[in-house]
Every structure is written in structure tokens, then in C-alpha cells.
């Protein structure tokens, strides 16, 4: 970075006082120098989704929600997020945690995350806080959903975690590797898996220790692990055969009480439930001091308090490491300081050993992962409540391969990447949002009335006002189909005015549909003449054919009862 670029960057970070500016000019890393506080430090990383390379990831322009949840943490984005947390537009925090001015700020601040930078920041913060008083925790969704994780079946992510030095972990997408593979990787993982809600189907016994107890600085800390409760709803059942999950509220209370009976001073929940569900649990479970939550990819630059329980969310995509310093007291937490530390590659020096490890891990796969498939003239992004330009790219690719398909469905997963205007599109970037272990595109027939019912079911899940009934990601994306969405309408009345290829949906007509990364094809009858093919292969073929794509955001849906924002 040139001196002029550093000056611009520091000004954007708000380093406007002469003293702070001078110090930052000499040591930009001082932004990560945190004064000591308390007795115990927790370093929290979650929802990395296999992204070992620095990359761009835009937060959702929209997080639509029922009125009961609207404007609350878990449903804050864009300008509303900046106002709620008091962040300045154009700052590093605004770039990392919101979609406001994303393309322009991406040019200023560069890519975020990456295993060598995350690891360097974790190691630095651990040394700064004190190794003996620090625990490093992973909130799950770490081993899968990238090109390198897909090609190594998660092994590279376990090797990375071992080198960084994690202490505990919980699961979600890890189970899409299959139970057998997960258990192989657990044996190689140095961190301890804790999870009270992964139980044997037959006897109901926990598969892993439900909690761990740590004695630190004269205090006792109990950490309970909570795996995503709806693994079997979100993914094909065969991946987790023989296991059950669930919220298991009564059992969670039992384990909190058990830890209290053992005399622990504070109880922490390491969770992959997501912000809305964990906020609800915080108001119902007695004796929880702190929840560290993942899954919904939210950031909480300031911790949230519900009664006597603190909640801190960890974001996603490797964009931040969360440091939580606890001032302990006998029987609880007297005070807490949480800092969401952006993994800004222009301000952090990568860890040399991790950098070498990642370079070696990628070496056998570079010809495949780094092949350039095409170029984009517009911003390609993934995350949003109902639509993204990357999902439209997938729809265009499916239509090109199968012109007879009426509607192409794409999944409402939250993970992915962003590709800036003018950037080349590589296979690695395509796999960052299509890195499923079940990527096949299925062609099937479905009657119009059933298609309407499917859309209503997805909307009922996505926009349910009760977090206990939200069991998946964002709204499924559609290509070739348009509709109106009333988020706050009663169940069964949210999706209206459905049209396919410009013609009103005929409830009695049988349509030809395509989908990938889910189980939608089970709703209809498969067209046997088509051999299922991975979505990323179809996208690669399409990009090689067209060479350049231009996809301005033009959603085929219209939101009737809430403001809908397009990026830029």
C-alpha cells in the first residue's frame, strides 16, 4: 500500500485526530490493539464456509421480516444497520457490516478475510489477551461450501483449524459431508466438538459431550454447544442418518442447571441457532450468561442484552473475528466488552506459516479452481432475502442448457461471494456459492397448484414471525417466474399473482421445472431422460459460451408491504 493510499484509508477509518492519525501512520495495526480487560477472553469465528482466500462478500441489501421482528437485530441491514449501531457511512465498519456503497468501498478497502489473515488476527489477539486466559471458539459452517473444501472433502479446513488452534466447535453444513466423513474429520480435529443436541436416533443419547468446563483465572466457565437444530429439514436426511437434532429447549435448561449445580461461575452457549432464535431462547432459558451465535450471518458490533443474558453474533465469510473480554465474578459475569474486528487484508499481515500452508493446499487444484470462465460487467452478489444476481446467473445457465424448462429454482443459502464489475469469473468464485455436496440439477414436472403451494411453504418458513418456526435460509430464487410477495399476510396468502414466462399461473397445467441444492424435485415427477448434472458445470459452460455477462439487479418478484432496496 502506498503512503497516499494509507492516508486515504485511515481517514476513512475515522482517524482524524492528529495524535491518532500520527500513531496510525506509524502503526496501522494499532486499530487491533485492545486494552486488557477482565479475566477471560473468548475469540469467536463462525460461518466461514470454507473461504480460505481473501474475497469480497456484500451483506444483504434486504432482510425482510414479519412486523414483529422488523427493525430488530437479525433483520437489520443497509442504512438501518448503520443507524442502529452508530456506524459512519464510508467507514471500514460500514463496508464490512453493511451493503451501503459496497462496490465503491470494495475498491477502497480491498478483499476481506482469508485463512492466513484470520489466523494471524486470532493469534495476535490471543497473545495480546494472554494465552492462558483465552479460548478460541468456532460456531460451525466452517468445513464446507468452497472449491477447496469440496475437493478435499473438508480436510483442508480441519488442517487449517488445527494450525490456528481452536478449542471448541459446533456443526451445521458440516453434515452435508455425510456422517461417516464428519466422524473421520472429528478424529483429525484437535478442537473438541461439544453439542448437547446431536443425539442418537435410537436411544436419544448425546453423540458428543454436551458441554466443557474451563478453569481460568480463578473462575469456572461452562460452555454448552448447540448444533443447528434443523439439519434434517435443511438437507437430505441420508447425510445425518441415525442422528436427531432439534432446539430441545428443556434439555438445554437441564444442562444449564447441571453446570450451575457443579458450581460454574458463568455459562456460555456456543450456538449455531442464529440471532432470532437465540434471542428468543435468551428470554426463556434461565442461567445463561452469554450466547455466541452463528448461522444467520449477522454482525452485532455492540452486544445485545436480553434480561441477564448477553448475545454476540459472529457474522460470516471470514470477514471478522469477535473478541469478547469477560470481567468475571463468583456466580456470573460482572461486565463484558465485545469487539467485532474486521479482517481487513490491507491492515493485517498474513501469518507466514498459514499463508504457506494455504498455498500448498491449493497447488494441486489451481488448474481447475483458477480457470477463468468469463468476465462480469456488473456486480454479482449472493445474499438477499429474495433475489441475487448470482442466482440469476444460475437461472440463465440452466435455461441455456435446458431451453424447455419453464422455471429454474435456486437455493436461498446465505453463503457465497461477490464479484466486482470488471473482475474475471473463476471456477473458484462460482464454487463459493455453488459448493454443495449435492449440486445436481434435476428436471421434473409439477402442476401449477402444487408450484403455488411450494412457494407458499418457503415463504411461511422464511417470514414466520416466530423464530422457532424458521427452519432454513432465505427465500428460494426463481428464474422464469414472477410473483408479488406480501410478507405480513397470513400463511398461504403471501405469494400472489404468480406468472410464468409472462402468463398467469395455470393451477391445472403441468410445468417443467429445474432445481439444485435441495429436495424440491421430490415434490414432482422426475423427467428420466435428463441425467442430473452439477450446477457449477452448467454455469461454467454458459460463461465460456457468452464470455461476458451483464446482470443488473432486476428481481422478478415485487414486495407489496415493505420497502425493497436494490444495491447501488
Name a few traits of the molecule.
Purple Acid Phosphatase, chain A, domain 2, six-stranded mixed sheet, about 20% strand, 5'-nucleotidase,  domain 2, single chain, about 30% helix, 3 domains, about 575 residues, 27 strands, alpha/beta
Account of the protein in words:
This protein is an alpha/beta fold and 568 residues long. The chain has three domains: 1-33, no CATH class; 43-51 and 113-344, Purple Acid Phosphatase, chain A, domain 2 (4-Layer Sandwich); 371-559, 5'-Nucleotidase, C-terminal domain (5'-nucleotidase,  domain 2, Alpha-Beta Complex). It is built from 18 helices and 27 strands. A six-stranded mixed β-sheet has the order 4-3-2-1-13-14. It has a six-stranded mixed β-sheet with strand order 6-7-9-10-12-11, covered by helices on one side. Strands 16, 18, 19, 23, 24 and 25 form a six-stranded mixed β-sheet that branches. α12 (275-282) links the parallel β9 (266-271) and β10. It is globular. The two termini are 27 Å apart. The relative contact order is 0.14.
How many domains in all? 3
Largest sheet, strands/sense/barrel? 6 strands, mixed
Q: Distance between termini?
A: 27 Å
Please tell me how large the radius of gyration is: 23 Å
**Which structural category fits the helices and strands?**
alpha/beta
- Overall mean pLDDT stands at 93
Name the CATH homologous superfamily of the largest domain: Metallo-dependent phosphatases
The DSSP helix count reads 18
Number of distinct beta strands: 27
Beta-strand fraction estimate? 15-25%
The CATH C-level name of the largest domain is Alpha Beta
Helix content: 25-40%
Tell me the strand order in the biggest sheet. Answer: 4-3-2-1-13-14
Pick out the low-confidence regions. Answer: 7-28
Q: What name does CATH use for the topology of the largest domain? A: Purple Acid Phosphatase, chain A, domain 2
Looking at the structure, what is the overall shape? globular
Q: Write the CATH architecture name of the largest domain.
A: 4-Layer Sandwich
Amino acid at each position: 500500500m502506498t503512503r497516499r493510499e494509507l492516508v486515504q484509508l485511515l481517514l476513512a477509518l475515522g482517524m482524524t485526530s492528529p495524535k491518532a492519525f500520527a500513531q496510525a501512520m506509524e502503526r496501522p495495526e494499532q486499530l487491533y490493539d485492545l486494552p486488557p480487560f477482565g479475566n477471560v477472553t473468548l475469540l469467536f469465528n463462525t460461518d466461514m464456509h470454507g473461504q480460505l482466500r481473501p474475497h469480497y462478500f456484500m451483506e444483504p441489501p434486504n432482510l425482510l421480516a414479519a412486523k414483529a421482528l422488523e427493525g430488530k437485530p437479525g433483520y437489520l441491514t443497509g442504512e438501518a444497520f448503520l443507524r442502529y449501531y452508530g456506524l459512519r457511512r464510508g467507514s471500514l465498519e460500514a463496508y464490512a457490516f453493511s451493503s451501503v456503497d459496497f462496490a465503491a468501498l470494495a475498491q477502497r478497502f480491498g478483499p476481506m478475510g482469508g485463512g492466513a489473515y484470520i489466523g494471524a488476527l486470532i493469534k495476535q489477539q490471543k497473545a495480546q489477551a494472554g494465552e492462558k486466559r483465552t479460548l478460541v471458539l468456532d460456531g460451525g459452517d466452517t468445513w464446507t461450501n468452497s472449491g477447496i473444501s469440496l475437493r478435499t472433502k473438508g480436510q483442508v479446513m480441519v488442517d487449517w483449524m488445527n494450525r490456528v488452534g481452536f478449542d471448541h466447535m459446533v456443526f451445521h453444513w458440516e453434515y452435508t459431508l455425510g456422517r461417516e466423513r464428519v466422524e473421520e474429520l472429528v478424529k483429525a480435529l484437535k478442537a473438541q466438538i461439544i453439542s448437547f443436541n446431536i443425539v442418537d436416533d435410537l436411544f436419544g443419547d448425546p453423540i458428543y459431550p454436551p458441554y466443557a468446563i474451563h478453569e481460568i483465572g480463578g473462575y469456572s466457565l461452562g460452555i454448552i454447544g448447540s448444533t443447528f437444530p434443523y439439519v434434517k429439514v435443511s438437507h437430505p436426511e441420508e447425510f445425518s442418518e441415525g442422528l436427531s437434532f432439534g432446539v430441545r429447549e428443556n434439555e438445554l435448561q437441564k444442562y444449564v442447571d447441571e453446570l450451575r449445580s457443579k458450581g460454574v461461575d458463568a455459562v456460555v452457549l456456543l450456538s449455531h441457532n442464529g440471532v432470532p432464535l437465540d434471542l428468543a431462547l435468551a428470554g426463556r432459558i434461565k442461567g445463561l450468561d452469554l450466547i455466541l451465535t452463528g448461522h444467520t450471518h449477522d454482525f452485532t458490533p455492540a452486544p445485545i442484552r436480553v434480561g441477564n443474558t448477553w448475545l454476540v453474533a459472529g457474522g460470516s465469510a471470514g470477514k471478522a473475528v469477535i473478541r469478547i473480554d469477560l470481567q468475571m465474578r463468583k456466580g456470573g459475569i460482572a461486565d463484558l466488552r465485545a469487539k467485532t474486528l474486521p479482517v481487513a487484508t490491507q491492515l493485517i499481515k498474513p501469518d507466514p506459516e498459514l499463508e504457506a500452508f494455504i498455498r500448498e493446499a491449493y497447488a494441486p487444484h489451481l488448474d481447475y479452481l483458477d480457470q477463468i470462465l468469463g468476465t462480469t460487467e456488473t456486480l454479482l452478489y449472493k445474499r438477499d432475502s429474495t433475489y441475487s444476481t448470482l442466482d440469476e446467473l444460475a437461472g440463465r445457465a440452466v435455461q441455456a442448457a435446458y431451453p424447455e424448462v419453464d422455471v429454474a429454482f435456486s437455493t436461498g443459502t446465505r453463503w457465497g461471494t461477490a464479484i466486482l464489475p470488471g473482475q474475471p469469473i473463476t471456477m473458484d468464485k462460482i464454487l463459493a456459492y455453488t459448493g454443495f455436496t449435492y449440486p445436481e440439477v434435476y428436471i421434473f414436472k409439477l402442476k401449477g397448484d402444487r408450484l403455488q403451494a411450494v412457494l407458499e411453504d418457503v415463504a411461511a418458513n422464511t417470514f414466520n414471525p416466530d423464530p422457532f418456526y424458521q427452519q432454513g435460509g432465505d427465500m428460494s430464487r426463481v428464474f422464469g417466474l414472477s410473483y408479488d410477495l406480501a410478507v405480513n399476510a397470513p400463511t398461504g396468502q403471501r405469494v400472489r399473482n404468480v406468472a410464468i414466462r409472462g402468463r398467469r399461473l395455470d393451477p391445472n397445467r403441468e410445468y417443467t421445472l429445474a432445481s439444485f441444492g435441495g429436495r424440491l424435485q421430490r415434490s414432482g415427477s422426475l423427467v428420466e431422460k435428463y441425467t442430473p448434472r452439477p450446477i457449477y458445470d452448467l454455469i461454467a459452460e454458459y460463461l465460456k459460451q457468452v464470455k461476458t455477462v451483464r446482470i443488473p439487479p432486476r428481481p422478478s418478484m415485487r414486495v407489496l408491504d415493505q420497502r425493497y432496496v436494490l444495491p447501488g
